[in-house]
């Protein structure tokens, strides 16, 4: 038992070393978002190419997301919430357009490949990896390995491509490049105390309650709601987080994302990898077009618009918004609306439609047999 425990500890510290090395190298070569991309790429290469026995507990990823949730909660002031309410119709329209694009991509892919439309559809919709995978698990006819691979490939491609788009001449997202939010004052570790001794347990409790209530991305939503309530209902000081703590949260999240891709579990590897990359590129191109529309309609910066529309994880998009000083409340508003809409409405509709398709297929199979 003791030997097993020490083996797990060794694997974890090896993984931590690989992640930190990735972050340091990506910082040295001035890559955008180095502490997210570095650990992610190094963990992916370390596990798949070097075959290292890497592991990263989900609980560490969750607490990294909790740190980001606290940070987003600080931006949800009364004024920011009014702005989000004002944009609700546009959030609905943009979400529907993005889902429409995913459905079209899945349909075309099902005609061009041997894969079935339901599996491709669940694999294409950007509704949070865990939500889509759990939906696929509930539906017995869906190819779970394909869904997981499509979702993870999309997430990794978006997390890798969006920073380079942000720092491209078209968007010009150098730090401070997001023109619609004032620069956040850099915080120090000492400035966190003593308030953080109260807020940290409250944020953990908020995450726990959100998980019990089966909220999507509970470890982000719980702390966000807690800090938003504290800001709106009290005059208490809510300290910003030091950049080094946000870097640590990026390691906690990026390391987990890097370990999620497991190509060895796939059948028809070449076809699946090509499909996953092509559908991700189409989705990124579509979200770029929608972000251009959003930028011109609401006079938002290009960085804020792109991060609002990018179909990645809310935690990763929020980290990038921090880095380029985009309007974090707008970005988190759009991302949160899409997650909740997909979680509460699209998932239920998908379940009904896919069950109907499955029954239809079974009925036609049985009639052809008889």
UniProtKB/TrEMBL annotation:
Any single biological process term in GO: regulation of gene expression
Highest taxon above the source species: Bacteria
Keywords per UniProt: Membrane, Transmembrane, Transmembrane helix
Coiled-coil features, chain-numbered ranges: none
Example of a GO cellular component annotation carried by this entry: membrane
Annotated TM spans: 12-29, 35-56, 63-85, 91-109, 142-167, 187-210, 217-238, 244-261, 273-295, 336-354
Pfam families hit by this protein: AbrB
Keyword Transmembrane helix: yes
Protein name, entry field: AbrB family transcriptional regulator
Species in which this protein is naturally found: Paenibacillus xylanivorans
Lineage: Bacteria, Bacillati, Bacillota, Bacilli, Bacillales
């Amino acid at each position: 038992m003791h030997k097993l425990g020490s083996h797990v500890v060794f694997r974890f510290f090896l993984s931590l070393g690989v992640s930190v090395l990735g972050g340091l190298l990506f910082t040295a070569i001035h890559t955008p978002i180095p502490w997210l991309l570095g650990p992610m790429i190094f963990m992916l290469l370390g596990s798949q190419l070097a075959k290292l026995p890497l592991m990263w507990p989900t609980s560490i990823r969750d607490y990294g997301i909790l740190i980001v949730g606290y940070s987003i909660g600080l931006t949800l002031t009364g004024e920011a919430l009014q702005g989000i309410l004002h944009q609700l119709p546009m959030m609905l329209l943009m979400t529907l357009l993005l889902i429409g694009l995913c459905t079209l991509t899945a349909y075309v892919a099902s005609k061009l490949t041997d894969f079935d439309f339901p599996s491709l559809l669940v694999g294409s919709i950007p509704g949070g990896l865990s939500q889509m995978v759990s939906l696929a698990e509930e539906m017995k006819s869906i190819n779970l390995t394909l869904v997981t691979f499509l979702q993870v490939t999309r997430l990794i491609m978006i997390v890798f491509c969006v920073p380079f788009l942000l720092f491209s001449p078209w968007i010009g997202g150098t730090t401070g490049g997001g023109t619609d939010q004032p620069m956040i004052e850099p915080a120090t570790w000492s400035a966190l105390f003593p308030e953080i001794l109260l807020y940290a347990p409250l944020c953990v409790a908020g995450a726990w309650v959100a998980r019990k209530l089966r909220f999507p991305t509970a470890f982000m939503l719980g702390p966000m709601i807690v800090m938003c309530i504290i800001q709106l209902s009290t005059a208490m000081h809510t300290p910003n987080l030091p950049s080094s703590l946000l870097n640590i949260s990026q390691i906690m999240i990026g390391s987990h994302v890097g370990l999620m891709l497991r190509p060895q579990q796939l059948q028809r590897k070449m076809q699946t990898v090509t499909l996953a990359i092509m559908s991700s590129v189409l989705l990124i191109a579509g979200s770029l077009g929608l972000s251009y529309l959003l930028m011109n309609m609401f006079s938002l910066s290009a960085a804020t618009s792109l991060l609002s529309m990018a179909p990645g994880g809310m935690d990763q998009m929020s980290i990038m918004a921090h880095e380029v000083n985009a309007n974090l409340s707008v970005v988190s508003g759009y991302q949160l609306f899409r997650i909740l809409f997909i979680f509460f409405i699209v998932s239920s509709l998908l379940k009904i439609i896919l069950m109907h398709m499955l029954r239809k297929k079974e009925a036609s199979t049985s009639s052809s047999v008889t």
